[in-house]
């Protein structure tokens, strides 16, 4: 009987130690990037809907540009991003920008997206940013929808040394009628 109790208590202790070790390893490999983000919009004579989705946080922004809104007017807006949780397996997080062209015929829209990471006003080199599309430019046909993906990745140095707080992400989205 005493032997059975010892075996069960030893097994329970080993399971507890393994659980604590797994949680510790997960916490050590998970990297979050905190920071703010801003998106500057320039819409020139377009009729479109814009939706921005952050991985892990869902939709963070939705706006419509109407064809009757001051054509050529510049519009600026700030989006508050959630903490970017970097997937430990891929070392990446994503932001998707979906643009729906609401013109019904013969009018394509050109969407240009740029993005960069900054810390204390200077470019932060611990993060890589890739924008889908050819040089960040995507053409959306009339009545069409396109999704532009911005992939934020950690460099090897950032993984090794950790990521400091205060990284900001600056996105620029320009929408204009295609020539």
Description:
- By secondary structure, this protein is of the alpha+beta class.
- 19% of the residues lie in helices and 48% in strands.
- It is built from two helices and 13 strands; from the N terminus they run H-E-E-E-E-E-E-E-E-E-E-E-E-H-E.
- The protein has helices spanning 2-29, 156-161, and strands spanning 31-33, 37-44, 48-54, 58-65, 74-77, 84-86, 92-101, 109-119, 122-123, 127-131, 137-140, 145-154, 167-177.
- The strands form three sheets. Strands 2, 5, 8, 9, 11 and 13 form a six-stranded mixed beta sheet that branches.
- The longest helix is centred in the N-terminal third of the chain and has 28 residues, at 2-29.
- The chain is elongated and about 85 Å long.
